[in-house]
Amino acid sequence: MSVFFYGCITMDGYLADINHNLDWLYQTGTIEETGYEHFYQSMDITIMGKRTFDEIETMENIDNVYSTTKNYVFTHSEGLSVKGFIPIDGDIVEFVSQIDKNKNVWIVGGNTIVAPLLDNDMIDTMIIQIAPVLLGMGIPLFSQKEAFKRFSLKEVKRYGQFAELVYTKT
Q1: In CATH, which of 3.40.50.12780, 3.40.50.670, 1.10.10.410, 3.40.430.10 is domain 2-136?
Q2: Which of 38, 52, 63, 65 is least surrounded by Cβ atoms within 10 Å, i.e. has the fewest?
Q3: CA 150, chain centre distance (Å)
Q4: Total-model pTM
């Protein structure tokens, strides 16, 4: 199993503004301007938090967006408004550790999902796109416990206004 984080942040490290909005991202570019399609085709499972799901569920044709992966949402809700998304109420570390070792897992967001996985050295690859935006305040990508973590830079790409950095765990 390989666990990936793939997402976009602002230049000052935020996933969303303080109101959990992504308008800054949508105003910067589209997924067609990135390597998203190629990345997604290699994934078997997506995992996200409820706030990330709340943002995704407003997309047009949501049923087609994540149609080839098994999709889990960490939430206290028993049901979700979109077919094909499975609610999970539990520990993210335990859940990920039980996934079939032959599967590729995409951690879609957010920091409450990413942090415990980083704390337990469970993210193998981080693909971080950086948008040319400064928010000053917002929801940070990184909120894990204070601990030294080293990754190795494998690739740098440019997609329109986005810089993409690909890091692997060393």
Answers
A1: 3.40.430.10
A2: 38
A3: 19
A4: 0.92
